[in-house]
Every structure is written in C-alpha cells, then in structure tokens.
Give the backbone structure.
Amino acid sequence: MIKSRGSVVWHEDLRAAAIAAFMAAVLLYPWDARAQSTCCTVEEWELIGITAEKIAYAFGWGFGAVVFCWFFGFGIGVAVNAIRKL
C-alpha cells in the first residue's frame, strides 16, 4: 500500500524487502568465504599508490571543505538576519 505524506511517498513493503535482502546476504553467505575475499592487502595498496598519508590528506581536504561550506552558510545566515533587523 502506498501512503502519501505531503510530497513524499512512503512504501511500507520496501523497508521489509530491504531488511530481508540484508539478512539474507549476511546470514546465507558463509563467514569464512567473506574473510578470504579481501580486495587487496596493504602492500598491494601501496604498490598502486594508496598510502595512509594520501588517505589522511584526502580526508583532511574533504572535512575542511564541509566545515568551510558550513561556516560560509552560517556567516551568510547571520548577515541576512542582521540586515533584516535593520
């Protein structure tokens, strides 16, 4: 059954299907096979150029960009509220 709440449409069975699919993937796939199917070892990552320093660098830039955008939006909001109060 589809229910409408404002402009958002919720489908009750979709959540149950997603939960069932997740449980099937987790419970039916053997744990030992999951442990043996790793993508790469640390040495292989280093051979292709992925190091801890590069991951930290990318994380730092991403975190900094998010904080900058938040601070920029906050500053604009403060300025708009100050102008409205004049």
The beta strands are 2-5, 8-11. The chain is about 75% helix and 10% strand. The CA atoms of residues 9 and 32 lie 40 Å apart.
